[in-house]
């Protein structure tokens, strides 16, 4: 196997970790044996926490969590953990302000991502802007959360930022959609010099030729910079007579021009098979929203929502997963374009 490395230079010796079980066959991603790490009714007033994102913070971990309140409305809660596995949550949901410091709460907020870029933490979620669209906020201290301009007009329900600027611009992946459960969806990217004006839109990748991701796809965790390009964990959706099934897929995007897909794994990396993935508020959903990674060892911990009910974790190593994606790569026609038409 070639030496494949995480190249962002950040070490995380306290990354949550479990070794690969002996005799594991198939994709090089293995589940945490004590899954799910966040169970039902995790905090008063919240029935379920899932599809959530974490980052290392002050020697421990912090995260933004999709909490389904007991009135059914999703919102974002702050959670903290010493080990990345056992989490405690603020009872109060996160309160947002506008740039003048005035209260400015989203109507609802779900599927939050949390990405650090140059010492600022950005939260990206799906909220309401006269229809489902992308919400954006920043914080530096996890006390004040300041909302920024809405990047896109409706409908768009899934967005992830790259963890560094490229050519001086912030880069965001998103998945334009419709107002419902959207029977289509490709990943696009957009750039912004200031987090206000977004443009230079490019197409990244479309739904797959294989069956597991043939209905729609969407960005998952913030891409990880590696010696082979940006490692992207995304969700791929198939349709069945029992509804949609969400699996985790993997792709490598060009490091200088991430609208070009270099490799795209034809097989899923993880698909619902455990009780907490198959059974819940919405069964058969594995929905990745974050990773932690350690440059030194190449270890990667993946956080994913399971069955719209729990948070679960899986592990992999950068060399194994990139090698698997390359070995099983099958690109679609639009993957290799510059994404301009
Ligand atoms: C998507 C989003 C996710 C959810 C998934 C499966 O459209 O709403 O939050 O996990 O559906 O229900």
Summarize this, please?
This is Glycosylase. With 341 residues, the chain is mainly β.
Describe the protein.
- This protein is mostly beta strands.
- Helices cover 4% and strands 44% of the residues.
- It is built from two helices and 22 strands.
- The strands form five sheets. A five-stranded mixed β-sheet has the order 6-10-9-8-7, with no helix packed on it. Strands 15, 16, 17, 18 and 19 form a five-stranded antiparallel β-sheet that branches.
- It is globular, with a radius of gyration of 18 Å.
- The model has no long low-confidence stretch (mean pLDDT 97).
- The structure holds beta-D-mannopyranose.
* Range of strand content: 35-45%
Largest sheet: 5 strands, mixed
Q: Ends: how far apart?
A: 37 Å
Shape: globular
Tell me the series of helices and strands, N- to C-terminal. EEEEEEEEEEEEEEEEEEEHEEEH
CATH architecture: 5 Propeller
Bound molecules: beta-D-mannopyranose
Q: Enumerate the spans where pLDDT stays under 50 for 5 or more consecutive residues.
A: none
The assembly state of the depicted protein chains is single chain
Specify the number of helices: 2
Radius of gyration: 18 Å
Instruction: Provide the CATH top-level class.
Output: Mainly Beta
**Overall domain count:** 1
Class from helix and strand fractions = mainly beta
Total number of strands: 22
Mean pLDDT: 97
Across the major sheet, the strand order is 6-10-9-8-7
Q: What is the CATH superfamily classification?
A: Glycosyl hydrolase domain, family 43
CATH topology: Tachylectin-2, Chain A
GO molecular function: glycosyltransferase activity
Keywords: Glycosyltransferase, Transferase
Protein name: Glycosylase
Family: Belongs to the glycosyl hydrolase 130 family.
